[in-house]
Amino acid sequence: MARQGKKIKDAYKDLDPSRAYSVEEAIKEIKARSFANFDETFEVAMNLGIDPRHADQTLRGAVTLPHGTGKTVRVAVFARGEKAEAAKEAGADVVGAEDLAEKVQKGEIEFERCIATPDMMPVVGRLGKILGPRGMMPNPKLGTVTNDVAEAITAAKGGQVQFRAERNGLVHAGVGKKSFEDDKLAANVRAFFDAISRNKPSGAKGTYIKRVSLSSTMGPGLKIDVSSLSQAQQ
């Protein structure tokens, strides 16, 4: 552990904690200071001026990142008949109805994203205590309760990121991998920022976006200049 401590200490060496970096500068700095021997995930975190305990200040949604997340997502679909066949053709990894529900109840959860057709919600609803805490419960607002299962599967596997503000107003998400080109990472960060901005809760008062930071799995976290995110850059 001492060796690991030295590496992360070196990663933060000469960094000014009070400085706000442009998103491009932050990406270059984080990559330059990377010491992990695997393809780290870049994560953006935003501190928002909201209290999600109030109904008019909740924040939840989804955004499709222009360059994907770099992760392979296994998708399960609750559907019957033609919808089930459409799900299989669209590339769903797991498809089923009551049989799939039984597997989930037994703890056999071999997927990261869950989609359901509206008629299956009475079955899926009984799995709320299992899927809910994992953030996998289908939700119409996220496009995961739909009759167009093919489109939902394409979105899930094509770089869609779901977000939800935590109790303290923090929202975060993985927005790509270290191996991504810098401009693609920057575009993904901006897409996530834009989605949070567009979905500002009606009850939010004062400063909505208080702080934005960018980090990698094992690397340093850097404060981001919000103005560098709101600018329309290519």
From TrEMBL:
One of its GO terms (biological process) is regulation of translation. InterPro entries: Ribosom_uL1_bac-type (IPR005878), Ribosomal_uL1 (IPR002143), Ribosomal_uL1-like (IPR023674), Ribosomal_uL1/biogenesis (IPR028364), Ribosomal_uL1_3-a/b-sand (IPR016095), Ribosomal_uL1_CS (IPR023673). One of its GO terms (molecular function) is tRNA binding. SUPFAM superfamilies: Ribosomal protein L1 (SSF56808). PROSITE patterns: RIBOSOMAL_L1. Coiled coil: none annotated. One of its GO terms (cellular component) is cytosolic large ribosomal subunit. Keywords: Repressor, Ribonucleoprotein, Ribosomal protein, RNA-binding, rRNA-binding, Translation regulation, tRNA-binding. It holds the Pfam family Ribosomal_L1. HAMAP family: Ribosomal_uL1_B. Belongs to the universal ribosomal protein uL1 family. Part of the 50S ribosomal subunit. Protein L1 is also a translational repressor protein, it controls the translation of the L11 operon by binding to its mRNA. Binds directly to 23S rRNA. The L1 stalk is quite mobile in the ribosome, and is involved in E site tRNA release. This is Large ribosomal subunit protein uL1. The gene is rplA.
